[in-house]
């Protein structure tokens, strides 16, 4: 006999209503786990829901494509979306989720009842911007939405993805701070595929004394080994097959390290060669300390091998922990 489908979660779009919901639940002695997402959910996200069930009484999933982490030249306009599909996927998980926070625009500040960013809405206007002026900016700054306050985790955000996406982690840390202040969770669950992001949020929570426990959940992969990502939908069949070189080469590097090959230069060169020969363009391939994210030359302590590579117009990231 099939299990009954989970009930439809409460959909909340207003941040004050979200805060009232959370406080009402906590006044009843309930604990809350938050899973921040940008939507277009896949099995990787659903695994975070299952993980959240282990840590709290109630689960909240936020669905919000954050313009603050995109520069005006990046792919905000093409980021996939399927809100109703997302809700049905969440309902397919045993136990489901209790609430979905789906705000329209978390950078929309109103003064005297007037929207400071104009009638058409901030996210849509960000999507239409091309290029920034006066240095690297986010879509939010380019459009002048009145948002001036940013959260930075200064050292951890500089390397890896931070080199080619200089506003990305500032935008992530800021929106996660906003979500924490609105939802007020006890626990937040993040996928370790975005390894640098996970470590940045851990450090931010420690440094700013948030009373929130950050849980990292292992990378989820499709049957062929490709790390699950909302951007995978943009891969052609040919590009997807070529992209398998990322995980395959990382597994070989992990095996080599466990067999005693500790030179990071050698391991890195092997991975770069495998990806390049498959037709990928490597953004970075670095072996870094798991805590500090500082590059190492020889594996003596637990490290993580992080890779970002382009296949066609799709940028993919992946990583593998090496505890040899």
From TrEMBL:
InterPro entries, alphabetized: Pantoate_ligase (IPR003721), Pantoate_ligase_C (IPR042176), Rossmann-like_a/b/a_fold (IPR014729)
Localization (cell): Cytoplasm
Keyword annotations of the record: ATP-binding, Cytoplasm, Ligase, Nucleotide-binding, Pantothenate biosynthesis
Gene Ontology MF terms in the entry: ATP binding; pantoate-beta-alanine ligase activity
Domain of life: Eukaryota
Alphabetized Pfam families for the sequence: Pantoate_ligase (PF02569)
GO terms under cellular component: cytosol
Enzyme Commission code: 6.3.2.1
The UniProt record lists the keyword Cytoplasm: yes
EC category name: ligase
GO BP of this protein: pantothenate biosynthetic process
Biochemical pathway: Cofactor biosynthesis; (R)-pantothenate biosynthesis; (R)-pantothenate from (R)-pantoate and beta-alanine: step 1/1
Reaction catalysed by this enzyme: (R)-pantoate + beta-alanine + ATP = (R)-pantothenate + AMP + diphosphate + H(+)
HAMAP family per UniProt: PanC
Protein family (similarity comment): Belongs to the pantothenate synthetase family.
Subunit field text: Homodimer.
Protein name: Pantoate--beta-alanine ligase
Organism phylogeny: Eukaryota, Viridiplantae, Streptophyta, Embryophyta, Tracheophyta
């Amino acid at each position: 006999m099939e299990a009954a489908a989970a009930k439809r979660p409460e959909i909340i779009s207003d941040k004050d209503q979200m805060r009232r919901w959370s406080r009402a639940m906590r006044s009843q002695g309930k604990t809350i786990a938050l899973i921040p997402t940008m939507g277009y959910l896949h099995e990787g996200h659903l695994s975070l829901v299952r993980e959240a069930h282990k840590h709290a009484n109630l689960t909240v999933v936020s669905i919000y494509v954050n313009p603050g982490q995109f520069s005006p030249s990046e792919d905000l306009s093409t980021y996939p979306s399927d809100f109703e599909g997302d809700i049905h996927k969440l309902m397919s998980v045993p136990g489901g989720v209790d609430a979905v926070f789906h705000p329209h625009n978390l950078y929309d500040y109103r003064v005297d009842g007037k929207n400071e960013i104009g009638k058409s809405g901030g996210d849509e206007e960000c999507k239409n911007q091309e290029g920034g002026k006066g240095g690297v900016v986010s879509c939010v700054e380019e459009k002048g939405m009145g948002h001036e306050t940013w959260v930075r985790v200064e050292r951890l955000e500089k390397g890896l993805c931070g080199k080619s996406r200089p506003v990305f982690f500032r935008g992530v840390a800021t929106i996660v701070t906003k979500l924490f202040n609105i939802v007020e969770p006890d626990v937040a669950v993040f996928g370790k595929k975005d390894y640098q992001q996970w470590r940045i949020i851990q450090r931010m929570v420690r440094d700013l004394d948030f009373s929130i426990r950050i849980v990292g959940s292992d990378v989820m992969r499709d049957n062929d080994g490709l790390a699950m990502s909302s951007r995978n939908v943009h891969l052609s069949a040919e590009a997807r097959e070529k992209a398998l070189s990322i995980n395959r080469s990382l597994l070989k590097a992990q095996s080599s390290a466990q067999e005693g090959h500790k030179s990071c230069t050698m391991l890195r060169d092997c991975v770069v060669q495998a990806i390049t020969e498959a037709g990928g363009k490597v953004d970075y391939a670095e072996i870094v300390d798991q805590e500090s994210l500082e590059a190492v030359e020889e594996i003596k302590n637990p490290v993580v091998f992080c890779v970002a590579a382009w296949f066609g117009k799709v940028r993919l990231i992946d990583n593998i922990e090496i505890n040899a």
